[in-house]
Amino acid sequence: MSQSAYVKLVPASEKQVITIDELKDLLLYYRSITTKTGEQLSWGYADAAFPYTIEEKEEAAGQWFYLKGIDQRKNKYILVGLGTEKDANVDHDINYIQVTLTEVSTHGDKGKANEFCKFIASKLKGELHLFNGRVMYYYPKK
User: Who is most buried in 32, 40, 41, 77, counting CB within 10 A?
Assistant: First the structure.
């Protein structure tokens, strides 16, 4: 059974709308900062921190992409997409980023997906709904 985590872009977030290209740029930024950390430690940390390639299919139409594991024994796939939902508390739609683990995803994929979700939520100051149902708030509360 597949599992999903969500980063909701609430009114207090940095952005209320994000494109698929901006999301890819965030993941590439994550890879670049982990590469720099690895250089400082004289260790190939980037390959351990982001062991995926970003793949997009034609039918995705700018709505989703997947991360394909470089070493298929350890990491398989993580799906990343965008969506909107109607919120009864506000008069407009809430945009969210959905991170989904497939049927073949490994425990390593789940750990990395949690890391990526936390990174994205902290950068965008969003509301993170984890795979286990818990919620983490990265936006400033009033």
Answer: 77
